[in-house]
Task: structure prediction
Amino acid sequence: MKILVTGGAGFIGSAVVRHAIAKGHSIVNLDSLTYAACIDNVASISGSPNYAFEQVDIRDRPALDAVFSTHAPDVVMHLAAESHVDRSIDGPGAFIETNITGTYNMLEAARAFWAANARPDSFRFHHISTDEVYGSLGETGQFTESTPYAPNSPYSASKAASDHLVRAWYETYNLPIVMTNCSNNYGPFHFPEKLVPVIILNALAGKPLPIYGNGANVRDWLYVEDHADALLTVLENGALGRTYNIGGENEATNLDIVKMICAILDKKHPGTAPYAEQITFVADRPGHDLRYAIDPSRIRDELGWRPSVTLQQGLEKTVDWYLANEPWWRALQSRDGVGKRLGKTV
Ligand code: NAD
Result:
């Protein structure tokens, strides 16, 4: 298949691009290269004859039409988004423009292209979203695909809005869509403003390891390469118009995650004292959801997909990757906002 991937220079999008090329697909990577992008994330495949890059903003509809007409993709995987909750608290406008208006532009450009090409049944618009649209769980329960939406942050509200648009384009215009909502990702090439890389890099630098609130917030952690594999599985075999939740079957509190990373670093890169001594509790994020957990039975039972690594295995691979790739993360640490506490204001 020729896949148009949006956001393919970001964390998850680049994993999708690398995985899809390895599986023999052709890729058109459309990305505007915001602060969160790193084109080196796809350096390993960028010389492939099956790869093309377009620096385009999804807020620019005419530019999207030109990409569709130049490349004539068989399917679309839409990942481009503003993705950091803390930045959405400080500056929600970019999240509304990219995540909502940008998704609307993508839907309209895809629909125009699909209609102009005899509406092939095989066309797919795969919208990649988050479990954060479902809001916060208490101590028990799991999100299913029919859990009502209740987003709590500007980020999750903008993603929820984009999900509603995608669903409406299926119901109203019969645009062939699939959707996925997945849990927190971690792994190689994770931008150094998110929890897992912040903890690894602050530990190595001898800096405090900041934990929001009391660290009791629970997330279901998914290794990014497993996510990329799940996305390709849904694209290839998912039922039309259907949503699939993707989880890692790995619930852990933020404090658990930080302690696990510290213990791995103590083994692989020992310091003068245990890294856990650097843990520091800081003011909580406003509207911080307590718990997310995914019921993965639909993707497991209908498509036979399960994650391949445990949380311990995935974190070990991640720590190994950061230890081996210092030039990659050093270059990103000077980008705007990295290393600063964001999203504290109410
Ligand atoms: P990311 O921030 O690492 O990458 C986003 C990419 O989109 C960047 O390369 C950026 O340049 C590009 N982009 C942003 N605005 C754009 C615009 N206006 N036009 C074109 N390109 C633009 O994000 P990520 O963590 O890789 O997330 C990818 C997708 O997966 C997002 O839709 C996100 O909501 C979703 N998601 C992420 C997670 C997670 O844990 N990271 C979990 C569930 C779902």
